[in-house]
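Subject: for your reference before the review

Hello V.,

The reviewers asked for a structural picture of the protein, and I figured it would be easier to keep everything in one thread rather than splitting it across files. Below is the amino acid sequence we used in the manuscript, unchanged from the supplementary table.
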Amino acid sequence: MPDVNVTLAMTQIVPLAADKFDKNKVTPGVLGFLVFAALAVGVWMLMKSMNRHMGKVDFEETPVGEAGAETASASASAPPSGERAPKRADNP
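And here is what came back from the structure prediction:
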């Protein structure tokens, strides 16, 4: 159970603070701006990192007719599970 003095103080201070401010004029203030600015900087850094990582992706779409032949040859040359495939010279 909370301390009686703390409860008594909160019941007396909260109404005083509520009467002091006009509810139509209260703004988030400096702390709200700093939190919003930190979130904006974080999103900007994430977008910058995502663009850098997406630039490294090398995706080449194969024509429809060659897709079946490549799939069959890729599954035949795939290493057994648990082993890693060696890196190719054209794809570091």
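For the response letter, the relevant points are probably these. The chain has a mean pLDDT of 75. DSSP finds three helices and no strands in the chain.

Happy to draft the paragraph if you're swamped.

O.
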